[in-house]
Amino acid sequence: MKNLLSMKDLSIDEISAILDRAAMLKRYGIRALPQKYLVSNLFFEPSTRTKMSFEVAERKLGLETIPFEAGSSSAVKGETLYDTLRTLEEIGLDAVVIRHPEERYYEDLVGKMNMAIINGGDGSGQHPTQSLLDLFTIKETLGGFKGLNVLIAGDISHSRVAKSNADALIKLGANVKFLCPPEWAGDFPYVSDWEEVIYTSDVVMLLRVQHERHDGKMRFTKEEYHEKYGLTIEREREMKPGSIIMHPAPVNRDVEIAGSLVECSRSMIYKQVENGVYIRAAILETILQKEELAWERSSKVHMF
């Protein structure tokens, strides 16, 4: 695997190998790689969890992380992303993690440079590292994916998390349903009534309302949205025994989820954050060492 750009590009075996490796790193600890590598995190959109999770994974792997601040880079002088990356490659970087507001920004870059690219989120397109940590958390908690009923609820059309997870979960054999206001469904089939899905869902995955992508227009107040499309305390009581709550965060408390549910016993929200470090370390190992995705097969835990 040279780059990680979209969950559409990963086979079941590749997903399985990354999750297995993350499980090994969580069990035995993340250790420094034998060779030194230079990497940088190029975030052109705000981020706390993804950027810092990568930075922690990079430090644990013993990587040299070169600082990059989009607001003080040559991008503000009009330099293209391609020219910025060509410069970083010539300086000696081995890999970059990029978050960018433009959907599929990477299509103009692939094949034009040897430096590896890890997609840290592209507009409303894909967020493969979030998807992999979500899959890791589901597998760790529920044991697998085949036949699992997963509900993705919220701002579907603007969510790269929803698209990445839908692609991956369907590929892995899960049944995926969507709940949202009609105008936020995009091309996905959807329901608008919690009664149709709350009793049978094994995973309720909530999405942040992405106000920054709505041009300032939203026909709901926060209270109205929570009442109609949010996970309320009353709806949580109707959830299937053993089912879990997920959210990629940041969380808008009492909008997409009741504030008191964020840290309830069903909630995996902070577990997702913790697992992100192991997943990102596994991805960096894979790409930098150009592994054949076959580490320690003998100790692999069967997943599906």
List keywords for this structure.
four-stranded parallel sheet; 304 residues
Outline the structure in words.
This protein has 304 residues and is an alpha/beta fold. Helix content is 33%, strand content 13%. It has a 4-stranded parallel sheet with strand order 2-1-3-4. The chain has a 4-stranded parallel sheet with strand order 6-5-7-8, with helices on one face. Strand 5 (149-153), helix 5 (160-171) and strand 6 form a beta-alpha-beta unit. Helix 1 (12-28) crosses helix 4 (128-142) and helix 4 crosses helix 5 (160-171). It is globular, with a radius of gyration of 19 Å. The two termini are 22 Å apart. 42% of the residues are buried.
Low-confidence stretches: 292-304
Number of strands: 8
Task: Give the helix tally.
Answer: 8
Q: What's the Cα radius of gyration?
A: 19 Å
Taking the alpha carbons of the first and last residues, their distance comes to: 22 Å
Mean pLDDT over the full residue set: 92
- The secondary-structure element order is HEHEHEEHEHEEHHEH
Helix content: 25-40%
Regarding quaternary structure, what we see is: single chain
> What general form does the structure show?
globular
Largest sheet: 4 strands, parallel
**SS class:** alpha/beta
Order of strands side by side in the largest beta sheet? 2-1-3-4
